[in-house]
Amino acid sequence: MKIGARLKNGARYQERCRRARSIAARERRVLWSVKAAAAATAAYALSASDLILDLISVLADRIH
Question: Distance between CA 7 and CA 20 in Å, rounded?
Fold first, then answer.
């Protein structure tokens, strides 16, 4: 598969995921606790401090 086709497929997949998250966030039948758990998970995954700590541990492992 060519790189351009792979990038297009990846972009389509990301767009579908974004739409699904958007629909789930607005859906009244989804429990607020599920929405809160999803938001907390996304915030943890995207937090810069977590990424920095992970990078430091990886670099420390490579040094020693």
Answer: 20
